[in-house]
Amino acid sequence: MKNKKAQLHMTETIAVIFIFFILVVFGMIFYAQYQKVAFKEKQEEILSTRAVQTTLRALYLSELICSQGEAEPEDNCIDLIKAEAVQAIFQKYLSNYYFHLFGYGRLTLHEVYPQEKELVLYEKRRVENLANESTFMMVSLRDDRLSVGTEPSYAYGYLLVEVYS
């Protein structure tokens, strides 16, 4: 009789240990899935932050910003003459300087009013892009070539910044 009781207790112990390990395995699977989702969300957050930082860098880049001599530069203004000339500079010094500022991405200047124009300022793509994030900033576009008297001519547009991961 004692032998059967011991065998019964042993079977119960094995069953409890088996159920415990099944619960541990389910817990590990759940935790792994949670970590995978949390990691993906963190990557998206980092990409969004990088997109905003790149937009601000481009917006306040001295090669693009509206300025006159030593006067204070205009806020949210891009000089179209500089923007058209800066494409060649970006390409010439892409690997030395501008890649460190903008990374893999694309900067596009869109004029909305009075005409619709698009000007790609910077573009560097990867062979395979896993994800991209786009941000834009409304800007005024100054063109001194179309000035009336001493006042420059302004247009409205936006700077579209796309970053790739």
In short:
This protein has 165 residues and is an alpha+beta fold.
Please describe the structure with a list of short key phrases separated by commas or semicolons.
5 strands, single chain, 165 residues
- Rg calc: 29 Å
Tell me the major beta sheet: 5 strands, mixed
Number of strands: 5
Q: Give the strand order of the largest sheet, numbering strands 1, 2, ... along the chain.
A: 1-4-5-2-3
Class based on secondary structure composition and strand pairing: alpha+beta
Strand proportion, as a percent range, falls in 25-35%
Tally of structural domains: 1
Instruction: Give the overall form.
Output: rod-shaped
Low-pLDDT runs of 5+ residues are: none
Report the average pLDDT across residues. 88
Descriptive account of the structure:
This protein has helices at 2-59, 80-92, 94-102; strands at 77-79, 105-113, 117-124, 132-148, 151-164. With 165 residues, the protein is of the alpha+beta class. The protein is rod-shaped.
